Amino acid sequence: MQYQWDESSKTLTVTSDDPNVESTQTIHQNDAVHIRIRGSIKKLGNFIFSNYTNVETIEFPDSIEELGNNVITFSLITEIRLPFQLKTVEPLGPFEYNYKLEKYIINPNHANFKVIDGVLYSRDMTKIISIPPNWNSKIFTVPYGVITIFCSATDCLQNIEQLIFPQTVSYIEGILFKPKVIKKFIIYRKVNSQDQITWAQTIDDFANSSVQKNDIKYVYSNVYSTYFKENKTAVVSTTNNNNKYEYSDNILSHDTNINTIIYPKSVDKISSSCFKPMSHNSFYIQDFTGYTTITIKNHLYTTYCSNYLSIHFSLSFILLL
Question: What integer is the mean pLDDT of 216-222?
Answer without folding.
Answer: 96
